[in-house]
Specification:
Layout (H helix, E strand, L loop, with lengths): L7 E8 L5 E8 L6 H17 L4 E3 L27 H13 L2 E11 L2 E9 L5 E6 L5 E2 L2 E2 L14 E3 L2 E5 L8 H9 L4 E4 L13 H19 L2 E4 L1
Parallel strand pairs: 2-3, 3-4, 10-11, 11-12
Antiparallel strand pairs: 1-2, 4-5, 5-6, 7-8, 9-10
Helix pairs in contact: 1-2
């Protein structure tokens, strides 16, 4: 399976409905099997983006590990943690220090036996603005997410932050237009899709078409709902 084999962050300036310019940072990174290494890498990229005046910064889906859902392995449940928990608390301090909004995707342990593919939204004062739990869970070869994750049960929302109303959907959610529409109806100005997408070797000949369809889908969400969409 291919994907997530490079490092970069992307900055873009967006003008919201209040005529204020916002600088968005989208971070993509090569994720290893070492959570501490991934944490340190993400932290450095966040600092780099903040130095370039990014105000809202989003990390990739399940960034603390490589994409473990390629197999069904009970050992991977040890990667899960609560929200709030050690990772969200550490990034909350960083958000407060840098006065930025952070979107931190995590493998969430909600309680014993209930796990989610989640993202915590941290406001610029370090407080938790909200948590989104992925609703649409795939179950295909190399994407065995139903083995690990319970679908979210809190609906599609937007969260008020210092720099605007932010909504988060995760990866496969992006293929369902209803999700983006419902988020927009709650007043979202910025919609983020943290993603750990990849493709299998057998799909290499179709990768260009797949990428094109993916980009068109995200652009359609932005146009039809009148909001800014961050995807990568």
């Amino acid at each position: 399976m291919q994907g997530r084999n490079y490092h970069f962050f992307f900055l873009n300036k967006m003008q919201n409905i209040d005529s204020n310019i916002r600088t968005i940072g989208l971070i993509q990174m090569a994720c290893t099997s070492d959570p501490e290494h991934n944490f340190q890498t993400a932290t450095q990229y966040i600092r780099d983006a903040a130095k370039q005046e990014a105000q809202i910064i989003c990390l990739p889906e399940l960034f603390l590990s490589n994409y473990f859902c390629q197999t069904e392995n009970p050992k991977h449940f040890s990667l899960a943690e609560p929200i709030p928990g050690p990772t969200s608390n550490a990034f909350a301090q960083l958000a407060k220090e840098l006065e930025i909004v952070l979107i931190i995707p995590l493998f969430e342990k909600r309680t014993e036996g209930i796990y989610h593919n989640s993202a915590v939204i941290l406001d610029a004062d370090g407080s938790i603005a909200g948590v989104y739990r992925k609703m649409h869970i795939p179950d295909d070869p190399c994407f065995y997410e139903k083995y690990y994750f319970t679908p979210g049960d809190s609906g599609f929302k937007s969260f008020s932050t210092r720099y605007g109303k932010v909504s988060v959907l995760i990866c496969w959610d992006q293929w369902f237009p209803e999700a983006a529409r419902l988020a927009a109806l709650t007043g979202a100005q910025f919609l983020f899709y943290p993603t750990a997408i990849g493709f299998q070797e057998c799909d290499l000949n179709e990768s260009e078409q797949q990428i094109s369809a993916w980009e068109i889908m995200q652009k359609s969400h932005a146009i039809s709902n009148g909001l800014f969409v961050g995807f990568y």
